[in-house]
Amino acid sequence: MAGIFDIELHDGDNVPQDESDDDIIEAAEGEYDTNPNVNAILDSENVERVQLSEQTVNPGQDKVGPKDFELCKILGEGGYGKVFQVRKVSGKDKGSIFAMKVLCKASIIRNQKDTAHTKAERNILEAVKHPFIVNLIYAFQTGGKLYLILEYLCGGELFTYLDREGIFLEDTACFYLSEIILALEHLHKLGIIYRDLKPENILLDREGHVKLTDFGLCKEHIGEGTVTHTFCGTIEYMAPEILTRSGHGKAVDWWSLGALMYDMLTGMPPFTADDRKKTIEKILKGKLALPQYLTPDARDLIRKLLKRQVAQRLGSGPEDAKQIMSHNFFKHINWQDVISRKLEPPFKPALKSADDTSQFDEQFTQTVPVDSPVESTLSESANLIFQGFTYVAPSVLEGMYSQSRVGNSRSPRRNYLGSSHGGRGFSPRSLDISNRTHFQTQQRFHPLGHNSMEDTEMMDIGHLSGHA
């Protein structure tokens, strides 16, 4: 999938030539000027002169910027910026509520991987349109910041509901897993692996349906048999092949799905420990303990998703999600009803209005929303890195050119995970590191910088996996 930032140049000799003569214009010699005087043409009274400006270039399109959005609440914040709830104050969609993700350019360009992942997230959000994936509405930039305007998902994080309930019944887990599977299947068909599936990155809309968010760790252009080696994700949900850095593909998402399913049904991810090294050791070598209260179908699906050998893992073959969808755990699921959003969500968020923030952490929503000023200004050459970032959703453009149309248990995860909100992306925990050991090879997650963290981590992993 070609991204907005990806420009590929080809030599003229390699471009296929259309040998058809349909476009040839027959003209006799002397009927056209072989050496025209450009200056004379420009001085001619027959030439219309137009001043280039925002009004004459792409007329009719809104020039959206920070001034067009009123800050309402803070939904989350971290090392790179903040996520706000905002209200549009101009244009056809005036009054609409959105989530605004603000990223500081100066922080991003310090690390090449950060820059690449930011571009990838922007490209993916534009390209991917799916009922269970968050929608990008606008993207724009200022001299020091990048802005992503996303649909506001007022239902909050799936983590909140799981934390509140302790564990889910299998029917409840089946509902969420079915919608997540279709979202991952869609990404895989586009050559994208998600790589950060966890309850914090799964948000609910106002009806209670799933929306995947935070695409900062995604990898594009992954075809069948293609692998990548980036060490990233959240440890408790990371597949063994990411930890050993032996090369991974789309099957890592199915391992994460198995870990998420286990989390939903037991209240905790399958492999956890007091520190990072012990957690990794359990993921690579630990025995999978399945509670007796799980049904045989649930136990079988979890086992097949958490196979350490990629070739044995359910969903690892060319059929991808279809292998998982045909498992007996989903025997009562009508997949056409799932994609049509006809299934009744197990939890419908209790909301008072479209701008309700009650499902988000008060430590953020009670803070006065301020878009902090930029402390440093990038050079012109540095800003060129983000050329092409601006975006307006087709649904918004169509509107511009048409008429306006009118009782809770205590979660067993609390002792291990705590209840603080830090994180990356749209979710409150989605901009910075949370209690879980979430990381990518990025400086913000480790005071020593990404290389020190990555090298130390790989020494630990090499020792544990026998590949020192």
From TrEMBL:
The keyword Ribosomal protein does not apply. GO terms for biological process: signal transduction. Keywords: ATP-binding, Kinase, Nucleotide-binding, Phosphoprotein, Serine/threonine-protein kinase, Transferase. Residues 69-330 form the Protein kinase domain. It holds the Pfam family Pkinase_C. It catalyses: L-seryl-[protein] + ATP = O-phospho-L-seryl-[protein] + ADP + H(+); L-threonyl-[protein] + ATP = O-phospho-L-threonyl-[protein] + ADP + H(+). Residues 404-432 are annotated as: Disordered. It comes from the Eukaryota. GO terms for molecular function: ATP binding; protein serine/threonine kinase activity. Residues 331-401 form the AGC-kinase C-terminal domain. SMART domains: S_TK_X, S_TKc. Its EC number is 2.7.11.1. Signal peptide: none annotated. ATP binds at residues 75-83, 101. The active site is at 196 (proton acceptor). PANTHER family: RIBOSOMAL PROTEIN S6 KINASE (PTHR24351). Belongs to the protein kinase superfamily. AGC Ser/Thr protein kinase family. S6 kinase subfamily. This is Ribosomal protein S6 kinase.
